[in-house]
Specification:
Keywords: Oxidoreductase. By secondary structure, the protein is of the alpha/beta class. The chain has helices spanning 25-34, 47-52, 57-60, 78-91, 105-109, 120-131, 151-162, 183-186, 194-203, 218-225, 235-239, 242-250, 260-274, 280-284, 297-304, 313-320, 326-330, 343-348, and strands at residues 13-16, 39-41, 45-46, 69-74, 95-100, 137-141, 168-172, 208-212, 230-233. The longest helix is centred in the last third of the chain and has 15 residues, at 260-274.
C-alpha cells in the first residue's frame, strides 16, 4: 500500500455534507450560489450502482459551476471500488470520498458505511484502491460504533487508514448506533464529542481533519477552525443556505451578502440552460430555505407547493417574481453570525 501523503492545510475550509436524497446536482448548483468557495459533495453512490446500474451517468453528471466537487462512494470490495473510482475520475471530480459513517440497516446489510469502522484494514484496502486514480482521497466516518467510548480505538483507525494513502478525514463527532436507532435519530441522539476531533488534529497534525455534526452558526464554525482544518455543514446548510454566505463573509472571502433576487436570477439562468428537461418539482423541492428568516417565508413555501411535473423549472421560476413583492427579492438575508450564541459555549457543551 502507498504511504500516507501529508495533506496540505487549507485555512478555513468549509464544505457541505453529502446528504442522500438532498444534495443532488440541482441542490448543489443552488448552494454554490451562496458559497463560491465551499467544497460540495455528491450524495452517497454505491460502487454497485455505478458498475451494474442501468444509467450510471445520472449519478455522475454535474455542472462545471459545482467545482470544487467530491464524489462520495460506498462499498466493501476493493476491486469494485477501484473501477467505480476510475469512473468518477473520468468525469472530472476534484476528489473522492469513502463513506464510513452511514448507519442505515440497508447499508449495514451491504457491509459498508459505518459498520466498516470495525474493519480498519478493509477500509485501508478500499482507500488504496481509490487512490489508484491519483485523485485526493478522504474518508468520512464516526467516532465509533454503538456505545463504545474508546479514543485509542478511533486513533488506531485513523492511523491504519492514513497508512493507505488517506490524508483527509471528515469526522462526524458522534458514534453510529447500529442497533436501536434509525438514520434520523443517529443524527441527533448519540452525544457530540467535538473534543475528540480536536484531539485527533493535535495527535495527527500532518493529516487534514474536518469536523462535522451539529454545526449551525458562524461562531461555531470559526471556533472549530481554531482547532481543525475544516468544517462540514449538513442540514443547517440545506435549511438555511444563507449560513454559507455568512461564513464566506466571516472568513473574508467575499464582501457581499446575496439577496433572494440574486439567487433566483442565478437559478433562472441554470433552469433556462436546461430547457424543458428539468421539471419544476426537481428544483423547487430544494428551495424552502431561500426565504429562511425573511418576511414572506410562508407565502414562498405556499408557492413552492404549486410546482408540478408538467411545468419546466424555468417557467416555474419566472412565475416566482409575481408571488412576492420586490422588497422580498431585494432583502438581505439575516446575519447568521449571531443566530445561535457563542462558539465557545457550543463547543464545550458536549466534551
Amino acid at each position: 500500500m502507498p504511504s500516507a501523503v501529508p495533506a496540505r492545510r487549507v485555512e478555513g475550509r468549509i464544505s457541505v455534507a453529502p446528504m442522500l436524497d438532498w444534495t443532488d446536482r440541482h441542490c448543489r448548483y443552488y448552494l454554490r450560489l451562496f458559497c463560491p468557495s465551499c467544497v460540495l459533495y455528491t450524495e452517497m453512490v454505491t460502487a454497485a450502482a455505478l458498475l451494474h446500474g442501468r444509467d450510471p451517468e445520472r449519478f455522475l453528471v454535474f455542472s462545471q459551476e459545482e467545482h470544487p466537487l467530491v464524489l462520495q462512494l460506498a462499498g466493501d470490495d476493493p476491486s469494485a471500488m477501484a473501477r467505480a473510482a476510475a469512473m468518477g475520475a473520468a468525469y472530472g471530480y476534484d476528489g473522492l470520498n469513502l463513506n464510513v459513517g452511514c448507519p442505515s440497516p440497508k447499508v449495514q446489510a451491504g457491509r459498508f458505511g459505518a459498520c466498516l469502522m470495525a474493519a480498519p484494514s478493509l477500509v485501508a484496502e478500499l482507500v488504496a484502491a481509490m487512490a489508484e486514480t491519483g485523485l485526493p482521497i478522504s474518508v468520512k466516518h464516526r467516532l465509533g460504533l454503538d456505545r463504545e467510548e474508546d479514543y485509542d480505538l478511533l486513533a488506531r483507525f485513523v492511523e491504519t487508514v492514513a497508512g493507505a494513502g488517506c490524508g483527509h478525514f471528515i469526522v462526524h463527532a458522534r458514534n453510529a448506533w447500529l442497533h436501536g436507532l434509525d438514520p434520523a435519530a443517529n443524527r441527533e441522539i448519540p452525544p457530540l464529542r467535538y473534543a475528540w476531533v480536536h484531539r485527533l488534529k493535535a495527535d495527527f497534525p500532518h493529516l487534514r481533519m474536518e469536523i462535522n455534526g451539529g454545526v449551525e452558526d458562524v461562531p461555531a464554525i470559526l471556533g472549530h477552525l481554531q482547532r481543525v482544518d475544516g468544517v462540514m455543514i449538513g442540514r443547517a446548510a440545506y435549511g438555511h443556505p444563507a449560513l454559507l454566505a455568512a461564513a464566506e463573509r466571516a472568513l473574508g472571502r467575499v464582501d457581499w451578502n446575496p439577496s433572494p433576487g440574486s439567487i433566483l436570477h442565478g437559478l433562472r439562468l441554470y433552469a433556462e440552460a436546461a430547457g424543458g428537461s428539468l421539471p419544476a418539482p426537481r428544483l423547487a423541492r430544494h428551495l424552502h430555505g431561500l426565504a429562511h428568516g425573511l418576511p414572506g417565508a410562508r407565502h414562498w413555501r405556499r408557492f413552492l407547493a404549486t410546482a408540478h411535473a408538467a411545468e419546466s423549472a424555468s417557467a416555474f421560476l419566472a412565475r416566482a417574481y409575481g408571488v412576492l413583492p420586490s422588497a422580498f427579492w431585494d432583502a438581505s438575508f439575516p446575519d447568521a453570525a449571531t443566530a445561535l450564541g457563542s462558539a465557545p459555549q457550543r463547543i464545550r457543551a458536549n466534551p
